Amino acid sequence: MNLNVEHLCVSFSEANIVRDVSLRVNNKQFVGLIGPNGCGKSTLLKSIYKVIKPRQGDVYLSELDVIKSSPRKVAQKLGVVGQFNELSFDFTVREMVAMGRTPHKGMLETDNQEDDSIVTAALHKVNLDTYAGRSYNSLSGGEKQRVILARVLAQQPEFMILDEPTNHLDIKYQLQILNIVKRLDIGILAALHDLTLAAQYCDYLYVMKEGQVAASGKPEDILTKELIGEVFDVACETYRNPVTGALGIAYLETR
Ligand SMILES: Nc1ncnc2c1ncn2[C@@H]1O[C@H](COP(=O)(O)OP(=O)(O)OP(=O)(O)O)[C@@H](O)[C@H]1O
């Protein structure tokens, strides 16, 4: 399933936060969205996954018109790992993950054996098998993040949007989450802050600045010291990591 965003504009009162953004994610492509704090990444993602109504523009998941379709219809195809995962009511970890099955169920339909095994497999995938009975609100930020990913895995989406999915996570779980997501082999659009991880995992990047796409391309083509300097206002040098061969970025000082 691919994602097509065309000329999207989002405004709050007089402020134009997302300004004429168009982007595309092909099926099975892992696309990163990078840019400084406040440039509009979350607002753009929220307007794609229907939390914010854009002032103008179109969003299509393959043939599905996301803006005109019901949330339920979209949730059958699109999984979202958002930025803040606090809850007012408490649920167990297993109940949270089981919610991922909701878009696939009828109004009065309860979970069946297949749903239960999907939930168990999702918990296992994020190493939370032994947490199933724990209260969600008692978990650490990183554990909550993994529960949310498990819920999205249980949803079995055909496309996934992630907003800073590695927030709160130590390096092991940062890599685990990105590996899990990458191996799903579906289209992914993820806002990421760590440019080295973005270079390592993403097939393609969109760079946002002040609500607009400032650059796009393959990580090795666009993550130059000039672009990083211009967009993030830091001095750096890029290099090939001698161990992994991946793109490395050495930050020198704030300009
Ligand atoms: N509901 C709102 N009303 C008014 N302004 C808002 C609203 N939501 C976001 N903004 C503003 O829009 C701008 C973009 O915010 P957004 O959260 O999209 O940035 P971001 O690129 O995701 O930042 P970060 O990297 O810090 O998460 C910010 O200046 C923010 O204060």
The biggest sheet, with number of strands, parallel, antiparallel or mixed sense and barrel status, is:
6 strands, mixed
Strands, total number: 12
Note the gap between the termini. 41 Å
Molecules bound to protein? adenosine-5'-triphosphate
Which architecture does the CATH hierarchy give at level 2?
Answer: 3-Layer(aba) Sandwich
Which strands sit side by side, in order, in the main sheet?
Answer: 6-7-8-3-9-10
Strand portion: 25-35%
Which whole number gives the mean pLDDT? 93
CATH topology, which one?
Rossmann fold
Which structural class is indicated by helix and strand composition? alpha/beta
Helix content: 25-40%
CATH superfamily: P-loop containing nucleotide triphosphate hydrolases
User: For this structure, what is the CATH class?
Assistant: Alpha Beta
Order of helices and strands: EEEHEEHEHHHEHEHEEHHEE
Write the layout of secondary structure elements.
Layout: E1 3-12, E2 15-25, E3 30-34, H1 41-48, E4 56-61, E5 64-65, H2 71-75, E6 78-81, H3 93-98, H4 113-125, H5 141-155, E7 159-163, H6 171-183, E8 187-191, H7 195-201, E9 204-209, E10 212-217, H8 219-222, H9 225-232, E11 234-240, E12 247-254
Parallel strand pairs: 3-8, 3-9, 6-7, 7-8
Antiparallel strand pairs: 1-2, 1-4, 4-5, 9-10, 11-12
Helix pairs in contact: 4-5
Residues 12, 17, 35, 37-43 line the site of adenosine-5'-triphosphate.
Protein name: ATP-binding cassette domain-containing protein
Pfam family, one: ABC_tran
Domain ABC transporter: 3-235
